[in-house]
Structure formats: structure tokens, C-alpha cells
Design goal:
Elements lengths: L1 H14 L3 E2 H8 L3 H17 L4 E6 L2 E6 L4 H7 L10 H13 L4 H8 L4 H9 L3 E6 L7 E5 L1 H7 L12 H20 L1
Antiparallel strand pairs: 1-3, 2-3, 4-5
Length: 187
């Protein structure tokens, strides 16, 4: 067991990016369920022991990374990394993409009611969003979806873990949007 854990650590540390469960299972010459069980045990142990690293699950893949609590110590030794600031516009656009993906720019603009090209470009630049294909429609518009960096940044393993709004909240948002549309039509 220790040898298998050492192999997982070496692979995840060396790769630096997320590694799909299937590839880890192939390397270990084990089945996916047994491999996932070993990784889960490692994740729990890393969480409970005083360690500076953790293993994160990102949509069926695994990555070794530094625990958030260690950030202040890292900036003492390295220059502070550039922190992207997500404005309200970027957060609104990102939430539309996260919940509606795959989604086109036109669909985002229809929901927001304003041009969203700049916001989408910024989210792509921040590696929170990426092009995931093209819609099979006239003009073949680009489809956008979230990235592993999005999952990492928001601390979720998959988009299925995103919070779901309450039905009453959705209805309230719908009324607010309708009222805003009425105001815009009068202007």
C-alpha cells in the first residue's frame, strides 16, 4: 500500500496538473475503484495531518496542490502572485457560463441584456472559462464552459457541486428581470 501511495504522490507531484483516475489506475496496474479508494485515504490523511499539501479531485481527475492556509508563507519566499479581481460583471458572466454550459456568447448576452465579449475574454484570460467547441448552427458560434482552474478556485470537485438556487429565489430573480426589461423598454 505504501508503495502505491508513493507512486501516486510521485506522479501527481511531477505532473503538476490534474491526472485522470484512469491513468493513475493504469500506472498502478489496479482497477479505478481500488485506485480511487487509495487516493481517498490519502486525501483524508493529508487533511487531518499537519501537511502543507493536499490532493484535490477535479472532475474525475486528481491534482496535488498547496493548502490555502499556506499561502501567506509562500508569499514570504516568492513575489506575490497576481490576484485576479472578479468584478460584479465578471462574476455574473461566470455564473451564467457555469450554470448554463455549454453556452454561446449570444446566449450570455441574451441573459445579461448587454454585450459580454469583454467579460468572456477576461474570464478566458484568467483561465476560468475556455472554448469547448462550436454550436452546430449557422455561423458555428463558439461554446464556452468552465475549466479545472474554475473548480480549483471555487473549491468544488465538479460543477454538480455548485449551489442550486431555491425556487422562490429564481421566481424573485425572474420578477426583477421582467421589471428591469419594462423600464428599459420605456426609455
Amino acid at each position: 500500500m505504501e508503495q502505491k501511495e508513493a507512486i501516486i504522490e510521485a506522479v501527481l507531484f511531477t505532473m503538476g496538473e490534474s491526472v485522470p483516475l484512469e491513468k493513475l489506475a493504469d500506472v498502478l496496474e489496479l482497477g479505478p475503484d481500488e485506485t480511487k479508494s487509495i487516493i481517498t485515504q490519502m486525501m483524508q490523511r493529508y487533511e487531518h495531518e499537519s501537511r502543507g499539501i493536499q490532493i484535490m479531485e477535479l472532475d474525475g481527475s486528481y491534482q496535488m496542490c498547496t493548502k490555502k492556509q499556506m499561502y501567506e508563507y509562500l508569499i514570504r519566499i516568492a513575489s506575490q502572485p497576481k490576484k485576479q479581481v472578479l468584478t460584479d460583471v465578471l462574476l455574473e458572466t461566470l455564473s451564467i457560463i457555469a450554470y448554463k454550459q455549454p453556452v454561446t456568447k449570444m446566449e450570455i448576452e441574451k441573459i445579461r441584456g448587454v454585450s459580454s465579449g469583454h467579460a468572456v475574454s477576461k474570464l478566458v484570460e484568467y483561465n476560468l472559462v475556455c472554448e469547448i467547441g462550436r454550436l452546430d448552427a449557422p455561423g458555428r458560434p463558439l461554446l464556452f464552459g468552465t475549466t479545472e482552474e474554475f473548480l480549483r478556485s471555487f473549491g468544488v470537485s465538479s460543477i454538480d457541486e455548485l449551489p442550486q438556487p431555491e425556487p422562490e429565489q429564481v421566481e424573485e430573480f425572474r420578477h426583477e428581470a421582467e421589471a428591469e426589461m419594462e423600464i428599459r423598454m420605456k426609455v
